[in-house]
Amino acid sequence: MTNDSNRLSAWAAYAVVGVGALIMLAPFYFMFVFATHSRTEIFSLPPPVFFGDDFFNNLKILTERMPFWRNLGWSVYVAIASTVLTLLFCSMGGYAFAVFDFRFKNALFGLVMGTMLLPSFMNMIPTFMIMDMLGWIDQPRALYIPGAASAFGIFLMRQFVATSIPKDLVEAARMDGCSELGIYARIVLPLLKPALGTLGLITFIASWNNFIGPLVVMRSPEMYTLPLALRSLQSPVNTEWGALMTGSAIATLPLVVLFVLSSRQLIAGLTAGAVK
Amino acid sequence: MGQTTRWFSLGRVFTCLLPLALWLGHARAQQLLTVAAFPAVDEIVRGAIPRWNRLHPNVGIKVVSRQFSDHHTAMTTALSTSFYLPDVMALEVGYVGRFAQGGGLEDLSRPPYDIRKFEARYVPYALQQATSRKGAVVAAPADIGPGTLLYRADVLARAGVSEAELIESWDSYVASGAKIKAATGAYLMAHARDMKDIVIRTGVQPGEGLYFDSRSNVLVTTPRFVRAFELARRVRQHKLDARVGAWSNEWSEGFKRGTIATQMSGAWLAGHLNNWLAPNTKGQWRAAQLPDGAFAAYGGTFFAIARGVPAANKPLAWEFIQMMTLDREVQLGAFKLQDAFPALLETYDDPFFELPIEFLGGQKARITWRTAASRIAAVAVHKQDAFADEVINTELDKVLERGKDITLALADAQRLLQQRAHR
Amino acid sequence: MKLPPVLRLSPEWAPYVLLSPFLILFLVFGVFPLAFSLFLAFQAWEPTSGLGAMEYVGLNNYAFALRDEWFWKSLKNTAWLAVASGVPQHLVAIPLAVFIHTSFKKLRNGVVGAYFMPYITSTVAIAILFSSLFSTDYGLINVFLQALAQVPGLGWFLPANPVDWLNDPDNIKPAISMIVFWRYVGFNVVLYLAALQTIPGDIYEAATMDGAGRLQQFFHITLPGLKPMIFFGVTLSVIGGLQLFEEPFILTGGRGGTDQSGMTTAIYLYRMAFDFNDFGAASAMSWLLFILVAALTWVTHMAFRPRGASA
Questions:
Q1: In the prediction, which pLDDT does A79 show?
Q2: CA B394 to centroid of chain Cα atoms
Q3: Residue whose C-alpha is closest to residue B263's, from B191, B358, B214
Q4: What is the reported pTM?
């Protein structure tokens, strides 16, 4: 193998990966560009490639057709509530599984892991009926309470506790007279910070993007979260594409920003979970 | 604090709060009636509020409006557990059938409603459409959609086709289409499906539904379906349809640019064309009866009361429905403002019908539509109608796009529908 | 803050208390719905009649589902989509991961980030965007294809006319697959990158010294080393592909497209419940699909099981 062929194949690698990355990012670019154009401009030949000036007009149409800021607010509220509850319950549960020995521990954990393999559609209909019976239809709690029992979350937490928190530390704290809840709150939680960060990110993103959940459970436009609001804008009659693009861009932007700031941690956390 | 002192303080607090409580209590005696609807029925309801306030000054109206299909999904959900039920719900005709079989709506033919007292005042077919197989009337008709043929007079003129020639028979309609295509390049219709939709509605026997009869036997191999498919295929073979779906971007572009010469639809389409679909074509459209002496209904709104509504609210809900459907002022108001064709027969002598419609070049089209309304035959509704709709459209697509044999297509549809006719 | 002795947890009770919030929610919202769904599959229920209207019908719903042509059509669609979107994901992700692993040091995070970004965004927003990109007359994808067809040499296999992606039943499936591929290829790149890091570099050095070429090294060192991750990734793709819902749902306006060509089983069972109001049949179908998913997962497991070792 000569140096030239090495260099050639290196350049080929760069080219392929580079083009691929552009293909990955191009749709985002166009989403933001289309958000600044009106409906007729989007659907014209040639399609717009640079930013236009219809952003505020689109925003006006958007907010006229939907209680958009309310929907954005609900998305934020549900995502935060979901993240807080999930972090709390999964860290407690993961700690319990990792450090303690109790009856049915393995069976329970196996059961929880088993449900991770369950497809999402299994719960669609019974969840609707349960929420219907509880009177939780159109309530945000129907979105963030069930999700707090995340099998992936408890798996991640248990993994992290098992590998990073030695049992002797817990024993020592116990002998020092620390209460059980105290050990959890003052020793375990601070050590869990990286895992909490990763799980928090994953949970926030999943909640923000959740579509099937709200689709099944929400019925009033004022209570919709963003994905559902966007879809109801996509009506077959007189779709306002400019406004729709603007809404999509607004729905996507926070996550893009969040991701750019935290990509390393997010990816590392996911792979740590995957390479079990 | 000693015991007595405490009682006195409480007593003092109580006496101060008492007038407040009484005032609040009185204010709450101002009842609120919830009405759930969708665009543009929500506007119609809001438009009727001043009249309601004159009749019932103590009762407010709260309008809950959702997008069309979301509204009906929400009503299904509300009916399933009686949570969040509105006192009155607006329903489009396509959904009345489904809800009628379910038993979740009040039977308005029974006391204390006795809607049959008013039977003669409604357009006959409309009340029929809200009647379940067991004879229960589950909703009252508010507006109807008499089918009409809207056509571009200027395009027809350029092709040398007269209105009479256009609507004489289905065959002459198709032949005119060929002439129009040859002379102007415009398509006769948006999609061959539109042709199928009308022809299957002609020749429905009394008591029959569109796809199922009263015993849930499947009717899709009857002659009206075969003829509908044949005509649609002929339209496609001669390239007379623009192959655009209703309400798509291309559909509205077709109207704006004059590449679609005719459209069969409800009378309300004229209003949509004027408002946002193709306002630039003002004055160039005319309305005619459907070809071949056909009369069909496209759409229609009804008001219903759910069984789960608290008993205290039902009388008021019924008052509201009576106002919306039997009050001449309200019915005409909806007609004038929102193009909602009245279901109340006694409005039909109003001079408003004689007024020329600017969008249609000054034509007094409402008279045409009034005639059509009285000649529409009722078509019974069935729970599986929505599904049957899709199945037939799918089979038609196969006939049009892949050249599937019509008998085979209808037989396949028959089989599919038979499986679920009784579910 | 020290709690009074009577309220303090003993180490014996601690795990139960710590686990209980999770467990309660899990049982109520994770396990109970499953049992309820199984119960529903044996009932006939018309939602507008209210909750009390459930009627036991035995195996009727299952029999109906198995005889229903649309159910089988949806299974076929789902299988097609799962394979067409899943296989390219892995075929492309593995070489990509290898390229990135060997050639990108400084820019690696940026590049990986770019590939991973589609995965974290809202499916709804993306599908809406792609609906406009796939528009027949004005969409960027057709514009791009038409431009490419002008290039001599490429014109012969590219379509001459604008492709009707969204309305033609033959084209909606590739359109959906493209979106799913775009979304998940980065996720798989990340998985494979992580796995590549577990293959020790000395093996490659030894192989090079033995005279093995790059391609040979790839097939004899890299691929076998990646096997566990391939198994994991393929399992995820199988499960994910079989439960495909959001992309086709948005792209076809919630109905499954012309000739139901884009209707996956997940969409069909949603429609059975919420469009056609047949909750019993929908529940029965979800269980039938679940059995299929479980069977296929087991088959994948058997196919990738390390030879000689037990599962």
A1: 96
A2: 23
A3: B191
A4: 0.86
Q: Which of B70, B76, B193, B243 to mutate to test the interface with C (most CBs of C within 10 A)?
A: B76
C62-304 is classed in which CATH architecture?
Orthogonal Bundle (1.10)
- Mean pLDDT confidence for B123-143: 89
In this predicted model, which residue has the larger pLDDT, B294 or C161? B294
Q: What is the CB neighbour count within 10 angstroms for residue B123?
A: 25
* Cβ-contact B388, B417 below 8 angstroms: yes
According to the model, what pLDDT value does residue C311 have? 42
CA nearest A145: which of C28, B315, B297, B4?
Answer: C28
User: Higher confidence at residue C105 or residue A105?
Assistant: A105
* Most B CBs within 10 Å, among C40, C43, C48, C134, to test the B interface: C48
Per CB-CB distance under 8 Å, the chain A contacts of B68 are: 235, 237
Q: Do A45 and C116 lie within an 8 Å CB cutoff?
A: no
Break chain C into its structural domains and give their ranges.
Answer: 62-304
Q: Residue B223: which of B202, B195, B209, B198 has the closest Cα? A: B202
pLDDT tens per residue, range C212-224 = 887 888 888 888 8
C138 interaction partners in chain A (CB closer than 8 Å): 42-45, 47
For position B150, what pLDDT does the model report?
Answer: 94
In this structure, are strands B59-65 and B140-152 parallel, antiparallel, or unpaired?
unpaired
The tokens of A99 are what?
Answer: 């450090």
pLDDT for position B205:
86
Contacts of A242 (CB under 8 A, 6+ apart): A34, A35, A37, A38, A39, A41, A42, A54, A57, A58, A61
Whether B5 shows a pLDDT value over 80: the answer reads no
Element (H, E) at C57: none
Percent of chain C with pLDDT over 90: 33
Complex ipTM, two decimals?
0.85
Residue B76 pLDDT more than 70?
A: yes
C257 φ/ψ sector (left φ>0, alpha ψ -120 to 50, else beta): left
Instruction: Check pLDDT > 70 for residue A275.
Output: no
Q: Residue B297 contacts by C-beta under 8 Å, 6 or more apart in sequence?
A: B93, B125, B129, B144, B145, B146, B147, B201, B266, B376, B379
Smallest CA-to-CA distance from A136 within A72, A26, A223 is with A223
Residue A8 pLDDT > 70, yes or no?
yes
Comparing C302 with B155, the larger pLDDT belongs to B155
Does B27 have pLDDT greater than 50?
no
- Which of B247-277 are b and which e, b meaning 16 or more Cβ less than 10 Å from the residue's Cβ? ebbbbbbbbeebbbbbbbbbbbbbbbbbeeb
Out of A133, A232, A237, name the one closest to residue B247 (CB).
A237
Q: Which residue has the higher pLDDT, B8 or B180?
A: B180
Domains and CATH numbers, chain B: 9-144+299-351 (3.40.190.10), 145-297+356-420 (3.40.190.10)
CA-wise closest residue to C280 among B423, B234, B335: B423
Instruction: For residue C88, give both structure tokens.
Output: 């390219």
Structure tokens at A169: 């530390």
Q: Please name the residue of chain A whose CA is at the shortest distance from the CA of residue B79.
A: A132
Q: Beta-strand (E) ranges in chain A?
A: none
Q: For residue A68, what are the CA distances in angstroms to A42, A212, A249?
A: 22, 19, 13
Three-state DSSP state, C134: coil
What residue of C is the nearest CA neighbor of B418? C68
